[in-house]
Structures are given as structure tokens and as C-alpha cells.
Automatic annotation (TrEMBL):
One of its GO terms (molecular function) is transferase activity. Residues 173-189 have a biased composition (Acidic residues). Gene3D superfamilies: Hexapeptide repeat proteins. It comes from Tumebacillus algifaecis. The keyword Repeat applies. This is Acetyltransferase. Keywords: Repeat, Transferase. Residues 165-189 are annotated as: Disordered. It comes from the Bacteria.
Amino acid sequence: MRKTVRYPVEGTNALWQIYQTVSFWKVMKNFVVIQLARYTPFLKLKNWLYSTFLGMKVGDQTALALMVMVDVMYPELISVGRNTIIGYNTTILAHEYLIDEYRLGRVIIGDNVMIGANSTLLPGITIGDGAVVAAGSLVNRDVAPGSFVGGNPIRVIRAADEAPLPPERVSEAEETVQEHDEDSTTILH
């Protein structure tokens, strides 16, 4: 279960009432900062923009790839640990506006986490240290430390306590990659 706080609204849908729940000027400032950060290739600058102007917590050596979209209304609810990679075009939401309510929830991403490209993280989730999220995943619940998850919605592909590939299978995989690289080199020259 995601950890969100629910705020009921009356009358028109919650999104129609957006500027009664968050300042227009805050959203405009956040939008400009996020767009600058999305396109900059300089990771230190990007992390500085997020932490200085948006109030996000971003750990050392963390890399948010090109086009990552963080929550424009409540980015201060997002925390990313150190040495984490968030893949291209990933969306991190800390809010959701529905018909009769809106919800806010912290998004906590641990240390040494890998999130594949084009993933969506919903509000109120925690991704534990060392976890891996496959590309194109919808993270709609917590991810245990060290586990590998993927899909829409996510499911556990490999739990943290399950062994990775045995050494002989790893060497087979490396040989396959090496053979592919040799073939590619031949084709390119």
C-alpha cells in the first residue's frame, strides 16, 4: 500500500482546483527549474538545481538522466540517495489529482538504486537500497532493498535473497557480449 495523505475536495475535480492547493508562482518557478534540469548534460549542475531551487534531497554521485521529469508541484517530497541512477524520461510523482480528492506522498529512493528508462514512480513509495527497476515500469508500491522488479504494474523478478546468475552463466553472458562487440566492429569498419 502506498503511503499518501488524502485531501478531499468538493465541487469540480481536484485538478480544476489546483491553485487552491498549491501556489501558481511555486509551480511556475518549479516548471522553469525542472525544464532547465531536464536538458542540462551536467549532472552536478542538475543536482544543484534540484536541491537548491526545488528542495529535493539528492545524494552525492547520483545521476538523473536526460529528460527525467520530477513532480512540478511538490518536488520537495522527493528524496534520492547517493550513487543512484534514474534513467531517461522517467517520471517521479509526489502528487495525484483525482475527481473527489488529491493525494500527496513522499517518494524515497535509496542508495545505489538503478531505475530504468521510461519508468513512472507514483507518490508514497519507497525504493530500498540496491534495488533495480526495469525500464518501462510502473512503480505502484514499495520495492524491497536489493530486489529486481519490473512491469506495469511492477512485480518481483528477483528477490534480494535469491542468488544472481551463477559464475558460469555470467561468463557465458560476457562471452556472448564480447562476440557481439567483435561482430559490430567488423560491420562498422
